[in-house]
Amino acid sequence: METASxxxxxxxxxxxxxxxxxxxxxxxxxxxQGCREFFLGKAxxxxxRYMRIRNHMLAEWEALKPEYLTKIRARxxxxxxxxVNAIGRVHTFLEAAHxxxxxxxxxxxxxxxxxxxxxxxxxxxxxxxxxxxxxx
Length: 136
Known about the structure:
mainly alpha
């Protein structure tokens, strides 16, 4: 891979991703826009809760680099910090903003087709017997 003349690892012609510095004690405007649900005055989603989630994910990412920080791993240790989906949205925002997982090595995914949560079960009429017949 060719790099820029300044020694940066950014490939020639590619736009470098700006560094976003996170202050663990404050929340930036970008974060407030990216994770609005924590800044709408709701009792269960507060700026303090957002900072706790964010700071936990940052610490996990620092400890894991260069390995990819998954949502599941990021949620570990975040008891009583919000629902799983809200925590996942914080992870998604931090990842999109290149605050976590920038340059991470991807983890191996399980083989098989992607799951949409729907299980397909098929059986023939000959398999549809009653419990008494099966136990018989």
